[in-house]
């Protein structure tokens, strides 16, 4: 009787702990109540051992998948828990190993997805491939939908979700070995060949290399070589400066600077125009030094910056008063120091009249300047010609106050080196072209006051504007 089942394909369910085994019956021992399977599969995965033996007490359910002698027997009882017909189990139960091919299910069954498993019996594959609703016997019932709640299964189907694991995942990926397979020289050689075919230059020195990609602000047309010395003067000064873009800006002597402004005034660039341009450029720089848009917001009206403006009775002082007027119009608290003189220049008087209309504060004594540090000091005490002012008491007192105050100093149109500068500055703003300034001038900036190019040519200067899109640019010592 037991020998009749040898070679048959069976499915043994040993419960949720041990899982489901499938294979070909190799031996049945009725005395010891054991059954052995050769070429076994555990939960759809081939077992590493050639044969597995089961005891009757471990078997929860046994199904005959294929009978070797072709009899019409549906099942055989090995233990008291195995019935003569297949037991209907819930669809989501882990013990269910048969997948039904019906119009409501997928076109491939579980057995079809494992047809290519090496070493699997051909009869077992045929049985699963041909399993359908038409091949079920009369005693077989349709599994009921049980264990489904809100479209999700209560128990995970190990046969479905536990399949497809590759044993090769346990081995580490060999990065060095795979990297050695990449031949860089061959790849770059292919790139060079393709570039030559497309008419592009091969890789060479950085000067010869043509970029394959351009930024949105770059010109794809071949441009002329950049000339960094675009300004030449007949008598270069003692220093040379350069801009952020590398353009060379030479310094000029005060005599050439004075002659340039005289020619510009003869062509219509009057002193009043120069004062206005200088005041606008200086105030823009001062507003940036005070914090720019981060400080000048409607939320900071209660924290208005304070600027002390030290001016003398000369053109440089008039430039400072013009700067103070623009700063006061931009909600800056300006304190203007200007000593009392019986007679002043007309430019100083007119600028002072406009400044007083802004609500700024004017003082003539050092005692009226604030004792606490201010946000910025603008120094316009020095003059290019009247050096005797340095011996005046008001000049020395103003210079001492500026040096004792811990606020940074911006010098406006400072004199050349050698004339002396009592106030040490952190920044200096030169006009048109820089003068050779002393080391105490700090970092040098240059502003554009609107002198035309032909005016430069009349005094012997070959000029190309270094300002670009700005009116105030920083200069660096070359």
TrEMBL record:
Parts of the chain that traverse the membrane: none
Upper classification of the source organism reads: Eukaryota, Metazoa, Chordata, Craniata, Vertebrata
Entry keyword Transmembrane helix = no
**Principal location listed in the UniProt entry:** cytoplasm
GO MF terms on file? Answer: mRNA binding
Which residues are in the YjeF N-terminal domain?
Answer: 253-457
Q: Which GO terms describe its biological process?
A: deadenylation-independent decapping of nuclear-transcribed mRNA; P-body assembly
Query: Which Pfam family, an example, fits this chain?
Result: YjeF_N
Q: Which UniProt keywords apply?
A: Cytoplasm, RNA-binding
Region (Disordered), start-end ranges: 72-155
Protein known as: Enhancer of mRNA-decapping protein 3
- UniProt keyword RNA-binding, yes or no: yes
GO CC, any one term: P-body
Which SUPFAM superfamilies does this UniProt record tie to the protein?
A: YjeF N-terminal domain-like
Where is this protein localized, as stated in its record? Answer: Cytoplasm, P-body
Bias (Low complexity): 75-90
């Amino acid at each position: 009787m037991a020998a009749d089942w040898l070679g048959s394909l069976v499915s043994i369910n040993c419960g949720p702990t041990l899982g489901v085994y499938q294979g070909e019956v190799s031996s049945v021992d009725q005395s010891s109540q054991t059954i052995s399977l050769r070429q076994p599969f555990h939960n759809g995965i081939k077992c590493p051992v050639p044969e597995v033996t089961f005891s009757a007490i471990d078997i929860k359910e046994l199904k005959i998948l294929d009978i070797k002698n072709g009899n019409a027997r549906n099942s055989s009882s090995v233990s008291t828990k195995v019935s003569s017909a297949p037991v209907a189990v819930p669809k989501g139960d882990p013990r269910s190993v048969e997948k039904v091919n019906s119009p409501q299910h997928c076109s491939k069954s579980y057995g079809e997805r494992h047809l290519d498993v090496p070493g699997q019996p051909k009869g077992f594959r045929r049985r699963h491939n041909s399993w359908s609703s038409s091949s079920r016997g009369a005693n077989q019932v349709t599994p009921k939908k049980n264990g489904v709640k809100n479209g999700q299964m209560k128990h995970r189907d190990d046969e479905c979700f536990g399949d497809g694991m590759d044993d090769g995942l346990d081995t580490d990926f060999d990065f060095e070995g795979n990297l050695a397979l990449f031949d860089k020289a061959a790849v770059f050689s292919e790139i060079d060949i393709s570039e030559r075919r497309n008419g592009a230059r091969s890789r060479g020195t950085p000067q010869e290399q043509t970029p394959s990609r351009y930024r949105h602000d770059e010109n794809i047309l071949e441009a002329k070589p950049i000339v960094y010395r675009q300004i030449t003067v007949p008598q270069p000064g003692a220093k040379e400066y350069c801009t952020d873009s590398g353009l060379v800006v030479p310094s000029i002597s005060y005599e050439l600077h004075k002659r340039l402004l005289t020619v510009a005034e003869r062509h219509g660039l009057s002193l009043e125009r120069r004062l206005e341009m200088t005041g606008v450029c200086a105030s823009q720089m001062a507003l940036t030094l005070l914090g720019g848009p981060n400080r000048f917001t409607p939320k900071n009206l209660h924290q208005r910056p304070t600027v002390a403006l030290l001016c003398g009775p000369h053109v440089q002082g008039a430039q400072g008063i013009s700067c103070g007027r623009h700063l006061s119009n931009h909600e800056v608290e300006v304190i203007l120091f200007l000593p009392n003189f019986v007679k002043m220049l007309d430019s100083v008087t007119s600028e002072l009249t406009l400044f007083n209309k802004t609500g700024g504060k004017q003082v003539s004594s050092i005692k009226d300047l604030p004792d606490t540090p201010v946000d910025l000091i603008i120094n316009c005490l020095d003059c290019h010609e009247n050096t005797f002012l340095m011996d005046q008491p008001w000049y020395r007192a103003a210079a001492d106050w500026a040096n004792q105050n811990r606020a940074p100093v911006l010098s406006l149109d400072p004199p050349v080196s050698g004339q002396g500068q009592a106030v040490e500055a952190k920044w200096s703003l030169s006009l048109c072209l820089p003068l050779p300034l002393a080391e105490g001038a700090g970092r040098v900036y240059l502003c554009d006051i609107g002198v035309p190019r032909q005016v430069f040519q009349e005094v012997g200067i070959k000029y190309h504007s270094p300002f670009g899109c700005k009116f105030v640019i920083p200069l660096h010592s070359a």
